[in-house]
Amino acid sequence: MNAHPLHQRPVHVAGIGLHRYQRRSGTSYAQLGVTAVRAALEDAGICWPDVDAAVVGSALLGMAPGRIMLARLGATGLSIHQVENASASGSTAVAQAVLMVASGLHDVVLAVGVDTPEPWRVAPSQAGIGSLEGGLIAPFTHFALLAAHYQREYGVTDVQLARVAEKNHRNGASNPFAQRQQVRTLDEILERPISGPFTRLQCCPVGEGAAAVIVMSEAAMERSGVDRARCPRFVASVQRSQGFVEPGGNADTVLTADTARRTFEQAGIGPDDVDVVEMHDAFTIEELLYLEAMGFCAAGEAAPLLDAGAWDVGGRCAVSPSGGLLAMGHPLGPTGTGQVVELTRQLRGEAGVRQQPDARYGLAHMVGIGAVCVMHILERQTS
User: Fold this and answer.
1) Quick check: helix, strand or coil at residue 161?
2) What domains sit in the chain, N to C, each tagged with a CATH number?
3) Is the dihedral of CA 117, 119, 123, 128 positive or negative?
4) Are 323 and 338 in contact (CB under 8 A)?
5) CA dihedral defined by 122, 123, 126, 131, rounded to 10 degrees?
6) Secondary element (H or E) of residue 44
7) 99 close to 372: Cβ distance less than 8 angstroms
8) Distance between CA atoms of 84 and 129, rounded to whole angstroms?
9) What is d(CA 332, CA 368) in angstroms, rounded to the nearest whole number?
10) Percentage with pLDDT > 70 across the chain
């Protein structure tokens, strides 16, 4: 595999910002986004004219949301790019920002994810290509079927599945930016069934919000006087799409495994080196499936390790310390960008009660319909 340009020209996270993820409130997307960007600028200690380019990730807003939103910060004439990649839109915005800096095209690039829950208009349903289920299986039913199959194969109980949500709601309760900020008991999580083993609290909420990340070259960091110790470095950034999947295979799991292999190869580390993971856990079963697919444990071992506390904050690897999609929320455009915000807090040691001790490496993982997968690995900097 060819080396990524970021190995020749290092790229760092210099600033992070969020607008809390929340239910639809009537707040304009521009206000959501500007709030997050201003926070990221303040965190980096730079001014808006210092930003060379911006990449705006959204899944639901439609055509050209970036210019009118960012103009509220000042009309500087910067380069603005719009990306849409379903649930991975924000992750893709970060990946493009990293590539712009690593390639030498720019020194300071903003990646911002923003969305409000507008009506969904999904292009694959209009492609003129039919499917056997004819669009009758909702996402939660699709994943409920995967969960039931997994449970039968590995003897995983409904309670073990619910413990994913118990952990992530506990993490989200300590995150002031999370949509769901309440500790939930197993009894509460097991209430209100929706499909198969899934209950309401085992499915992510889709609301509104924004997340912003400012990435910089080392030359720009030096010019701006940015504290290098607060600026984790990207050691891998990989984007893949679905290839051939054997009949009966789970496309998202196969895609995740392929992307993870390439991501670890690019970073020069393995799953055992990772201290924090922010992953696509829109439904509880996804956490178990993807941990195994990425190589954090063998098939069928994720649930017993969850029971043993391996994926807790303070455990072997903190999985979704932000609360994940299940509690932090999944406003689509911001989700993947917000994962990088959380990893940055963790690698700085600024996550408070959610802090994973001595975190050195953090991995962000998102999938999106299509199917696509985007992963990043960040490394803590000490000086």
Assistant:
1) helix
2) 5-121+205-379 (3.40.47.10)
3) positive
4) no
5) -80
6) helix 29-44
7) no
8) 21
9) 9
10) 95
pLDDT at 315: 98
Other C-beta atoms closer than 10 Å to the C-beta of 25 total 11
Asked if 329 and 175 count as a contact pair (C-beta separation under 8 A), the reply is no
For 76-104, b/e burial (b = at least 16 CB within 10 A) is eebebbbbbbbbbbbbbbbbbbbbbbbee
pLDDT band of residue 245 (cuts 50, 70, 90) is confident
What is the DSSP pairing of strand 361-368 with strand 318-319? unpaired
| 151 or 117, higher pLDDT | 151
Q: Strand 198-199 and strand 193-195: pairing?
A: antiparallel
Tokens of 362: 């953090």
CB 172 within 8 A of CB 205: no
pTM value is 0.95
CA 303 to chain centre: 22
Strand-strand pairing, 276-278 and 361-368: parallel
